[in-house]
Amino acid sequence: MVSQYEEAGVNIHAGEAAVQDIKEIVNQTHDENVLHGLGGFGAEYELTGLMGQYQQPVLISGTDGVGTKLMLAIAADKHETIGIDLVAMCANDVLAQGAKPLFFLDYLGLGSLDPQRVTTVVKGIAEGCRQAGLSLIGGEMAEMPGIYKNDDYDLSGFAVGLADKAALLGAEKVQAGDVLIGLSSSGIHSNGYSLVRKIVADAKLDLNHTYATLTQPLIDELLTPTTLYYHSVYPLVQAGQLHAAANITGGGLADNLGRMIPDELTAEIDATSWQVPAIFNFLQEQGQISEDEMRQVFNMGIGMVLVVPASEVEQVTTTLTQQTTPFQVIGKVVNRREQPVEYAN
């Protein structure tokens, strides 16, 4: 017998089945500090064993979503990696302030609950948590057919990290002479997709076609998951080799790196120092977008910038090379010119 709640569009049994399916996936991300994850009214994470490592412990948190990249995943029925994007949007922000990632919570709102699709999405979130050093300890899943239509869904996440107050990264540590090291992005990451979708629509691009300058179908280029930088960057934080870091999201290099530059200094960027990935050149050509707007909207191939004291550059670049982390020295910090961030060419 179908209940009135199911007639209203909410399937409680499907929700229970989805929770059972994802429990083991979630448990695999847990570390020894997780007391209780799924099943309670709130997740529990113990800090006792961590406190002795910090003289002045500071919790750092970040929350975000995936943006309209999610619309492409839904339209293409490709949900395997969108959860990685969700984690990255939160975790890379927390990492950029010098925090050790602790735990992650997610929220999934749906129009119609398909347990298999939910499991696929959560597998991606769990994979993102593994890449980010986070325990996935809880979340919320809500079927809301009055808000979301048919197969539509939305994602948001919340990450928490821990740092010693004296070791926090930020603008107050940045000095003239610091060197800017750019860590390569995997592509567009998760920002600028409203413009991406407009270009696709206006130019009548075929998402399933592999265009001449690309190495895979356009939809796969566009859904390439965001790079998580934890394993590359946190060892440098622990070694005290960074002054600041900037996660390059919406607003591009100028807006995001600009947050880390004091009023009396300027970050001078050499735009010729790295090769812009083909997907950006393709979108720029297809959409007839100016260089200035491309730089304002997209990361253009640099997903995170490390602000490194000149004395630490050799060791940092050696470590990144040993990690096989793709990077490039992209500029330096100089005395203030007109803007916090300026391109040398």
TrEMBL record:
Top class in the EC scheme: ligase
InterPro entries: PurM-like_C_dom, PurM-like_C_sf, PurM-like_N, PurM-like_N_sf, PurM_cligase
Keyword Lyase: no
Reaction(s) catalysed (UniProt annotation): 2-formamido-N(1)-(5-O-phospho-beta-D-ribosyl)acetamidine + ATP = 5-amino-1-(5-phospho-beta-D-ribosyl)imidazole + ADP + phosphate + H(+)
CDD domains: PurM (cd02196)
Domain (PurM-like N-terminal) ranges: 59-162
Family: Belongs to the AIR synthase family.
Name of the protein: Phosphoribosylformylglycinamidine cyclo-ligase
